[in-house]
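WARN retry 2 of 3 for item q-0093 after timeout on previous attempt; input resubmitted unchanged.
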Amino acid sequence: MTEKIKKHQDIIIPLGIGLALTIVGLLGFLQINPLSSPVSAATTVTIGVTAVVQEYMSMTANTTTVALRPDLLDTNGVLGIASSTDIAITVNTNSADGYRMTIQDDNGGLRIGSTGNYILLATATGTAATGTDYYGVQAVSSDMTLNAQYAWATTTNNIGRIASTTATAFASSTSSGIGKIAYMRVKATCDLAQPNGDYSDTITLTGYSTP
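OK item q-0093 returned
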C-alpha cells in the first residue's frame, strides 16, 4: 500500500511542476505580448439649432390726463402761463435699428368742445407769454434724440406746435433700448379776450420700430 502512494506522489509532483512552469511561461508571454485593446468604430452626427427672437416695441406714459395750472385767466382778470407736470414717456424695444415717435393734436388746439373757440400756436415754435394765444409742448431726454421743434428745457416757456392734420416727428433713436424716457410738458397762454370755458385737447404719441 505504501508503495502505491509513493508512485502516485511521483506522478503528482511532475504534474505540479509542469503546471507551474506553464503558468509562469504564460504570464511572461502576456508581459512581452500584451493583449491589444479592441478597436471601436466611430461616427458623428451634427444637429442644427434655430430660434427666433421677434421684434417688439412698447410705449407707455406715466399719466393719461394732465391739467394745466395755473388758470390761463383767473376771476381777477390775471393772465397766467399754464403748464402740466412732467409727462414721462417710456419706450421699450429690441429693434436693432432703433425707433421713432410722432406727435399729433386731435382737436386742432385747446378747444371748448367742438366750437371755434380754441387756443393754438400759429408758428412752428414760439415762447409762451401772457397776453398771447400759445399752446404746445416741450421735451427733454438723455435717452433719445428729440425733434428740434420740441427740444426745449422744461424750465423755459419755449414750445413747439402740435399739428392737427399731420403727425409730426417727435423723437427717435438709432438703437434698441429698454426703459428709454423722454419728459414732456404741455404749456399754454391766452389773451384777455379769450372766451371763458373748459378747454381740452387730446395729444396722440405713436411709436414705430425702425425702419
